[in-house]
Amino acid sequence: MYDKQLDSGRGTLLHLCDDVIQQEVKEVIISFFILMEQGKATMEDLDLRCEELIKEEFEESCNFDVDDAVDKLEKLKIVSRDSIGRYYCVGLKRANEIIGVTTEEHVFKARQGSSSA
User: Fold this and answer.
1) Are 89 and 95 in contact (CB under 8 A)?
2) Which among 27, 83, 88, 116 is most buried, taking Cβ atoms within 10 Å?
3) Exposure of 69 by Cβ count < 10 A (0-12 exposed, 13-18 middle, 19+ buried)?
4) For every one of its 117 residues, what pLDDT tens digit does the chain have, with 9 covering 90 and above?
């Protein structure tokens, strides 16, 4: 019985971790999308634009964590800040080149290679 409870606890923890990661990825994607579609923005403007997008598309209010998303985008080197503090992004094609091949793409290519052999 204890082992089942312990396993259930691990499963719950892993599920929670997965949810957190997915949430962070969504925040990064939305922030990049807003910069790509609407152009340069201060941190405050970007935060407001992201919240407005979610309100318009999903009819839900939220407190968007734009600071963390922008920090991740800067670390990926696909978002920068201009001389007056506005954030901007590289083009989508360039962002894809910078980020490179994902693990998922490696797995997909490996599966294609093994099925053609």
Assistant:
1) yes
2) 27
3) buried
4) 444 455 677 788 888 888 878 888 899 999 999 999 999 999 999 999 999 999 999 999 999 999 999 999 999 999 999 999 999 999 999 998 888 876 677 778 888 876 655
Distance CA 33, CA 10 (A): 34
Q: Let me know the angle formed at the C-alpha of 18 by 15 and 20, rounded to the nearest 5 degrees.
A: 110
Q: Provide the β-strand partners of residue 80.
A: 88
Cα–Cα distance measured from residue 17 to residue 27, given in angstroms and rounded to the nearest whole number:
16
Q: Domain 2-90, CATH 3.40.50.1820 — does that match?
A: no
